[in-house]
Design goal:
Largest sheet: 3 strands, antiparallel
Mean pLDDT: 86
Structural class: alpha+beta
Radius of gyration: 32 Å
Helix content: 40-55%
Number of strands: 5
Amino acid sequence: MTTPPPVDEPPAPSPEPDPNVGELVELERSTVTVARFADYAGAQQAVDYLSDNGFPVERTAIIGTDLRLVENVLGRLTVARAALAGVASGAWFGLFIGILFTLFSNSNWLGVLLATILIGALWGGVFGAIAHALTGGRRDFTSRSSLQAGEYAVTVEREVADEARVLITRQNWRAAN
């Protein structure tokens, strides 16, 4: 005895499209790299040249690649230097608070302003010295950090890439001659 073949069920009806949900839109446009530079200034100069020659720079991007964090050591940090930095930041905070107090005070505004600056500087110095002392010598230097790229690429949308290449080639030719 043979079994009858399975009966195909009709496909489930597709749901009605939701009028509140829009169509998917392509978010990224196709881009082309038209030039590469070792430093940001060169890439910025190229985009500026494009702009000066009527190119639609809103279709341009500067993309840094091969990123690295560079920390330049500025000097030794002692308790006295930490306190001095705290005095400066505390004075600025005191100035801010003093301005707020003088807005809502009927008393001598100059006296209030000077008092808040002095109190802020005093407490800033105390907290700066204590904070540095509590590190136990683990960070006895000051530094400045910056994010740097190994290369900067100028990219443009594919539709205008030929125009950008012509302009950048002209810029490079003029710079060489």
